Amino acid sequence: MKQPLKSVLSALVLALAFPCLTIAAPGGAPWKGELKWQYDAGFGITGTPVVSDGKVFVGDGEGTLHVVNAATGQLVWKFKSGATINGAPAIMDGSVYVGGRDGTLLALSAQNGAIRWEYRSGSGTTPGAIWASPVAADGKVFFCSADGKVYALNARSGALVWSFDTGRELRSSPLYADGMIYVGDYNGLFHAINAKTGKKVWGGGSAGPINAQPTTADGVVYFGSWDGTLQAVRIKGVIPLWKAAVGESVTTSATISGGRIYLGTVTGNLVSLSAGNGAPMWSFNSPGGIHSTPLVADGLVFFGSDQGILFALNAATGKSQWSFATGREILSAPALDNGTLFFGSMDGFLYAIH
User: Fold this and answer.
1) pLDDT tens digits for 335-347?
2) What are 157-176's pLDDT values in tens digits?
C-alpha cells in the first residue's frame, strides 16, 4: 500500500527539521522510522491499538473495531458497534472488551468478533458514555462511565459485580494494580477502590479534572490534572511524596521508565521529570497538543501530536531522532510489538513503523 500523498509531502518537510538517526530496536535491528504497512480503516481512528496473538485490535470514530494481521496489515475481522470507540480494547482469556460512547461495554470473541455479551451503563436520563479504555483483570472487567460510576463486571457473563459512584463525570480509564482500582474524576478527586468489594479505601484531590489514567511504579501512584500538576503518592500508608507543576494541563497518562516520568500537555509539550522528586529533566515542544500517552523503548520516547506527527525522542535528552507525518491528529497511544510500532491517526489509517 502506498502512503497518502499528504503524508509523503509532510514527511519530506519534517525530514529536513528532524533528521533520521539510527537507533537500535529489539533484536538489534535499527529504528529508521519507516513505514512497514498501513491499513485503511475508512474512518478516523480514535482508539489506541492493542497487539495480541499476532493481531492488532483498534477502534475508530464510527464505532468499528478493526482486527488486522500485525505482520502484514491485512484485515482479519471487524465488528461494527455503532458508537465511537475511544481508548484501548482489553483482552483476556480469548475475549476482547470494548466500550463505546453510547455507554455499551461489549465482550467479543477475540478469534472472530462474535458477541458474547453486552452491558449498558447509565440510565434514560444520565448519559453513560465510555470515554476511555476498559481494564480486564482478576476475572472482572472494570470501566468508567460518564454517569460518574466505576463498574466491575464478571468477565465471563457480563453480570454486574459492583459499581462505585464518584458523583461526577468520569472520562479516564481505571487502573488495576495489586487488588486496587485507581481512578480520577472530573471534579479533581482521586479514588482508590478495593477491586473485590468496590469500597473506597482512600482518596485525594487536585485543583482540576483528572482525565488521564493514573500510573503505578515501585509502590507509588502518579496522577496528573488539568491544574497543571502531577502528584506522586506512596500507596502503602498513603504518603504524599511530591507535587510537580508542569505549567499547563496534563493531557496524557504518565509513563515511568528508567527513573524518569514522561507525559504530554495541552499545548504540545512532552515533559520529562525525575520519578524520585518530580524535578524537571527536559521538555520538547511538538506542533499542537498531545493526547497520545508516550511509550518508552530502546532509549526512545514515542508519541503522537494533535498535528498528526509521530515523534521519536532520545529519552535521556529529549532530542528528536526522527518523525513520521500522517494526515490528521494522532489521538492514540502507540503500541510496540516485535520491533514494530503501531498507531492510529484521524486520517483513517493504522500505521506500522519499524
Assistant:
1) 999 999 999 999 9
2) 999 999 999 998 899 999 99
pLDDT tens by residue, 188-217: 999 999 999 999 999 988 888 998 999 999
CA atoms within 13 A on the CB side of 100: 20
3-state secondary structure the chain: CCCCHHHHHHHHHHHHHCCCCCEECHHHCEECCCEEEEEECCCCCCECCEEECCEEEEECCCCEEEEEECCCCCEEEEEECCCCCCECCEEECCEEEEECCCCEEEEEECCCCCEEEEEECCCCCCCCCCCCCCEEECCEEEEECCCCEEEEEECCCCCEEEEEECCCCCCCCCEEECCEEEEECCCCEEEEEECCCCCEEEEEECCCCCCCCCEEECCEEEEECCCCEEEEEECCCCEEEEEEECCCCECCCCEEECCEEEEEECCCEEEEEECCCCCEEEEEECCCCCCCCCEEECCEEEEECCCCEEEEEECCCCCEEEEEECCCCCCCCCEEECCEEEEECCCCEEEEEC
The CATH classification number of 86-205 equals 2.40.128.630
Sequence spans of domains, the chain: 86-205
Between CA 188 and CA 174, with CA 88 as vertex, the angle to 5 degrees is 30
**Contact assessment for residue 347 and residue 25, using Cβ atoms and an 8 Å cutoff:** no
> Which cell is 179 given?
487488588
CB atoms within 10 A of CB 140: 20
- For 199-237, b/e burial (b = at least 16 CB within 10 A) is eeeebbbbebbbbbbbbbbeebbbbbbbbbbbbbbebee
pTM over 0.85: yes
Distances (CA, A) of 350 to 40, 172, 205, 333: 7, 23, 37, 12
